[in-house]
Specification:
about 80 residues, mainly alpha, two-stranded antiparallel ribbon, 2 strands
Length: about 80
């Protein structure tokens, strides 16, 4: 085969792989708002593995479409825990 054809085929295959990775997916089923009413996202099932919707950090889009990072909790100082 001609090297130009092989290069075009390789480029198309690599573009398919790259574009298939651009899908929005959730790491846990309970991160998806559609699943919040399902049995696996309600206690006691989800509390056993820590995947309840209130336990997971959510990314939210503002009105402009920008994604805001979840708020992190402050770790207490060494002397504060009793």
């Amino acid at each position: 085969m001609d090297s130009k054809i092989v290069r075009n085929i390789m480029t198309m295959l690599s573009m398919c792989l790259v574009l298939s990775a651009c899908e929005e997916r959730y790491r846990y089923p309970c991160q998806n708002p559609v699943n919040w009413d399902s049995a696996e996202c309600k206690k006691p099932f989800c509390s056993a593995n820590g995947t309840c919707p209130e336990d997971l950090h959510h990314y939210e889009k503002d009105k402009a479409g920008n994604i805001s990072q979840p708020k992190t909790q402050q770790t207490p100082a060494k002397g504060d825990c009793k």
